[in-house]
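Reproducibility note. Readers wishing to regenerate the assembly model reported in the main text can use the exact inputs given here. Chain order matters: entities are listed in the order in which they were concatenated for prediction.
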Amino acid sequence: MNGTIAKLALQALLGRRRFLLLLAFPVLLIGLVALVTVLVDGDAAYEVLPNLGYPLVLPLVAILAASSVLGPEVDDGSIVYLLSKPVNRYGIAISKWLVALGATLAAGALPILVAALIAGDSTRATALFVGAVVAGTAYSALFLAISAVTRHAVIASLMFVLIWESLLGNLFSGIAWLSIGQWGLRIGHEISAELPDPADLGYAIVAGILVTVVGVWFAGDRLRSFSLRGED
Amino acid sequence: MSTLVLDSASRWFGNVMAVNDVSLTIGPGVTGLLGPNGAGKTTLMAMMSGFLAPSAGQVTLDGKPVWRNTKTYRRIGLVPERELSFGYLTGRQFVRANADLHRLPDAAAATERILEVVDMVEPGGRRLDTYSKGMRQRIKIAAALVHDPAVLLLDEPFNGVDPRQRMHLMDLLRRLGDEGRTVLFSSHILEEVERLARHIEVVVSGRHAASGDFGAIRRLMTDRPVQYAVQSSDNRRLATVLMAQESVRSVGLRRDYLDVQVGDLGSFAVDLPALARQHDVTLFELSPSDESLESVFAYLVAR
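Running the prediction on these inputs yields the following structure tokens for the assembly.
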């Protein structure tokens, strides 16, 4: 962990226009749930969360956060200003990940909790929040790793979320074993049985930790081998 | 005192050879890395600053490889050609962040000291995106120097900097070289390198083409054979006369001019008018046909 790197990453996150987008997601989600709660009877408001908030808003927020703290610097090569310093590369990756994680939890997981509480039933809300914290943690590490390898990090991450987890995940139940969102739900299931039980609990915990640790380590390793290519 | 050594270093990207078997030793003082655009200067700089692995050979600083060696940055200050993208920081904040990343014991004092060296104390409070090109360049140099490195590497530091600022920068680099630091900068402009560097390394098409002090490089460049196009009242007769001269290597008879290749520029220039008069030939036009820097470089490689 390096305070200076974390501070710069935070400034990069807050200083860009993307930040407004990051802010718009939670506002819209909470607004939508509140609106549906007022207008519709029954449990329709809560249904917004497992169908929209959790599988879509949370990973999108994680993508925005992870790609904002690393993506632009890798793209335009200005990360050399950080890397030409005797600073441990894994420390840089961890610092950037912590900032991305903080943003993901604040703009992704926390709004899900707030929205779920508005829709009622605090046990269910807590369960979904725990699941969102778990998934947000693994998502931000995975998307950080993707940002460290490719210039098309946002597209690649979106494809993972939209095509792999959402589209194919809905068609084939086996994908739950390789879906970060499903691992989070499985852990949340321990708190409230209203959440689905798509995979083995032990597996979900280990897989979540593994993706997080390997993702951050991988991002650090890529930074260690960061290459500048000239225009020529 | 630090020495940067390239030992048979090569770098290729797929089928493209960017740097081809270059061996260099860069010691204290100011060294200029001269070469036309696309010669591989940036690739060389990237290898020397640890931002590119050599495909073959070695790049070492005081005996230790620089690739994937984070600790070398304690002794290297790097001024990349890339633009600063930290527009939301002030100059002072940016330099301070660099000092903090080096974990300097008194980062605040080091920041002020170096801002003074590059003459940026007063504009230091403004955001980077309000700076002129020359100011950004000076802030980049300040950031690279804040930890007092033994080696300073600068990639095209004078690109886009106005002449007055350029003089300031040159004075600064000269001073750093005189202090015993190893200063290496790249440029594609001969005059720039001549004015600043004690020692010059020339690269062309990825190869190390020449090495020496500026006098030696100048001599190499002026003593090379030069091509002239000559128009006269009697090209054929002039050709016979010229061919007899020691300084002339070849004469070609074109449609309406002579293609003359000259080995010794000095005596050819002195002799030509006298010879023409002596043989009753009127000279209409004399023009060098390949004075561009590229052809000078091409000659150095072919030599």
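We highlight two features of this model. Chain A touches chain B at residues 2-5, 7-8, 11-12, 15, 72-73, 76-78, 80-89, 224-232 (CB under 8 Å). The two ends of chain A are 36 Å apart (CA to CA).
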